[in-house]
Design goal:
single chain; three-stranded antiparallel beta sheet; globular; two-stranded antiparallel sheet; Arc Repressor Mutant, subunit A; 5 strands; alpha+beta
Length: 134
């Protein structure tokens, strides 16, 4: 499975989404070093989050984009500000919850997910969140 398809960075219909969420792996690829995120992005307040038995869906009504998250992706979403302020804190929490996953892999996966979410406008830079909600 390609890295690009792991986080479902493309529109999905409800039926495709259910099938996709059932097959998404958790921390399954070799990781590359990532650069440090000094300040984590925040959840875009205009995004709708819907928890499912096998993960969650993020929906952007403005762009009409669905984005599927597996359980680890949901946990990353939950760990975004105000819960944590930086990538190191998120990775430490995930490492304690997934002790079999190498720290480098966790960091690379989280950074990749945040990059994809940012490209789609599902998260926004911390200083932009106030502007997005108005």
């Amino acid at each position: 499975m390609s890295r690009a398809s792991r986080w479902a960075p493309y529109p999905l219909g409800p039926q495709e989404l259910e099938c996709w969420l059932e097959t998404v792996p958790q921390f399954t690829h070799a990781a590359a070093p990532t650069e440090t995120l000094d300040v984590l992005p925040t959840r875009n307040p205009k995004i709708i989050f819907k928890a499912l038995a096998t993960g969650a869906v993020l929906y952007s009504p403005q762009d009409e984009v669905y984005f599927g998250l597996n359980p680890v992706g949901v946990r990353v979403w939950e760990l975004l500000p105000p819960a944590n302020k930086n990538l190191d804190d998120v990775c430490r929490t995930l490492a304690s919850e997934y002790p079999d996953a190498p720290a480098e892999m966790i960091r690379a996966d989280v950074a990749e997910l945040l990059e994809e979410l940012g490209k789609l406008g599902l998260v926004v830079p911390a200083d932009a969140s106030a502007r997005q909600s108005s």
